[in-house]
C-alpha cells in the first residue's frame, strides 16, 4: 500500500509514455522483418536469464558479450526499418496540422485529375508510376529526374507516360498538388516476401513506400491493372471509382487506411513489366 500511495502524477505520465512507446514499436515490428528479430531477442533474453538462474558462468559470459555487440549489429542490419519508423513518427505528428490547413475541395480536384489520368492509362495499357508526396520530402528522388513544376492536368500526366515521350521511363512526383518532377528513379524493395511475378515497376513502388509515407500508383504495362502502394504494401485491381474512394480516404482524412498485403492471383503482372 505504501508503494501505491507513493505514486505521483509524474510517475503515471512516465508509465503512459513508456507504454505508448512500446505499443508503437510493437505495432511497427509486427508486419516487418524486425518482428522476427524481436522473437530472437526474447529467446536470447530467456537463455541469459536461465544462465543466471542456474549459475552457468560460461553461457552467461557469452550472452553478455552477445548483447554488448548486438545493439550495434541491430542498428546496422535494420537501418531501413529504423529510418522508416523515425520518419513515420515525424510525419504522423504533423499530418493532423497539415490536414487542417489544406483545402478539402482542392484535394478532391487533385484526386479527380489523378484518377482520370490513371484510368485512361489503364485502358490504353500504358505503364505508369505516380508518387504522391506527403510529409516525407522526396528531394533525393526528385534530383534523379527532371523538374517540371506544372499544373496537374490529366492530359499532361498521360502525355508524360506516352511510350515515345523522353520522360516516360521513370516515376512522376506529385508535390503540393502539382506535377513536380518526372523520369525519377525509385529504390527497389529488398523484401524477399514479395511474390516473384511482380515486375520492376511494382517493386519500385513498394520500395518507395518502405522508406517514406508517400502514396504510389502503378499501372501495369501488360495488363493495365491499377495498384496502390502504401506503407510497404501493395493492393491491386482498382478501377476509377474504387481508386478515387481509396485516395480520398488516404489523402483527405487523418489516420489513413493502408492497403492489404500483396496477394498472388491469376492476373498478376509479369516480371517484364518495367
Description:
This protein is an alpha+beta fold. It has 2 domains: 2-95, no CATH class; 103-251, DNA integrity scanning protein, DisA, N-terminal domain (YojJ-like (1). It contains 10 helices and 7 strands. It has a 7-stranded mixed β-sheet with strand order 2-4-3-1-5-6-7, sandwiched between helices. The termini are far apart. The model is unreliable at 92-102 and 254-272 (pLDDT under 50).
The strand order across the widest sheet is 2-4-3-1-5-6-7
- Please name the fourth-level CATH homologous superfamily of the largest domain: DNA integrity scanning protein, DisA, N-terminal domain
Biggest beta sheet summary: 7 strands, mixed
Q: Regarding CATH, which class of the largest domain?
A: Alpha Beta
Q: What's the structural blueprint in terms of helices and strands?
A:
Layout: H1 2-5, H2 9-29, H3 33-53, H4 57-77, H5 79-101, H6 104-123, E1 128-132, H7 139-142, E2 146-151, H8 154-160, E3 171-175, E4 178-184, H9 200-210, E5 215-219, E6 226-230, E7 233-238, H10 240-251
Parallel strand pairs: 1-3
Antiparallel strand pairs: 1-5, 2-4, 3-4, 5-6, 6-7
Helix pairs in contact: 3-4, 6-8, 6-10
Short description:
By secondary structure, this protein is an alpha+beta fold.
Output the keywords:
274 residues; alpha+beta; YojJ-like (1; 2 domains; seven-stranded mixed sheet; disordered C terminus
Amino acid at each position: 500500500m505504501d508503494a501505491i500511495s507513493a505514486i505521483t502524477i509524474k510517475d503515471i505520465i512516465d508509465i503512459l509514455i513508456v507504454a505508448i512507446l512500446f505499443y508503437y514499436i510493437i505495432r511497427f515490428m509486427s508486419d516487418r522483418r524486425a518482428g522476427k528479430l524481436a522473437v530472437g531477442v526474447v529467446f536470447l533474453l530467456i537463455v541469459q536469464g536461465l544462465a543466471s538462474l542456474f549459475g552457468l558462468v560460461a553461457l552467461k559470459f557469452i550472452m553478455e558479450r552477445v548483447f554488448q555487440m548486438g545493439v550495434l549489429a541491430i542498428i546496422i542490419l535494420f537501418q531501413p526499418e529504423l529510418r522508416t519508423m523515425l520518419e513515420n513518427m515525424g510525419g504522423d505528428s504533423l499530418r493532423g496540422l497539415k490536414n487542417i490547413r489544406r483545402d478539402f475541395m482542392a484535394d478532391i480536384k487533385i484526386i479527380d485529375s489523378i484518377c482520370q489520368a490513371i484510368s485512361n492509362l489503364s485502358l490504353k495499357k500504358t505503364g505508369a508510376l505516380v508518387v504522391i508526396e506527403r510529409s516525407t520530402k522526396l528531394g533525393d528522388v526528385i534530383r534523379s529526374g527532371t523538374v517540371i513544376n506544372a499544373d496537374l492536368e490529366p492530359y499532361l500526366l498521360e502525355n508524360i507516360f506516352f511510350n515515345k515521350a523522353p520522360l516516360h521511363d521513370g516515376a512522376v512526383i506529385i508535390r503540393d498538388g502539382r506535377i513536380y518532377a518526372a523520369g525519377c528513379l525509385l529504390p527497389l524493395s529488398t523484401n524477399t516476401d514479395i511474390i516473384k511475378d511482380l515486375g520492376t515497376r511494382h517493386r519500385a513502388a513498394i520500395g518507395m513506400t518502405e522508406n517514406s509515407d508517400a502514396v504510389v500508383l502503378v499501372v501495369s504495362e501488360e495488363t493495365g491493372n491499377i495498384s496502390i502502394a502504401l506503407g510497404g504494401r501493395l493492393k491491386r485491381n482498382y478501377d476509377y471509382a474504387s481508386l478515387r474512394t481509396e485516395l480520398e480516404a488516404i489523402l483527405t482524412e487523418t489516420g489513413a487506411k493502408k492497403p492489404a498485403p500483396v496477394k498472388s492471383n491469376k492476373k498478376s503482372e509479369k516480371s517484364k513489366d518495367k
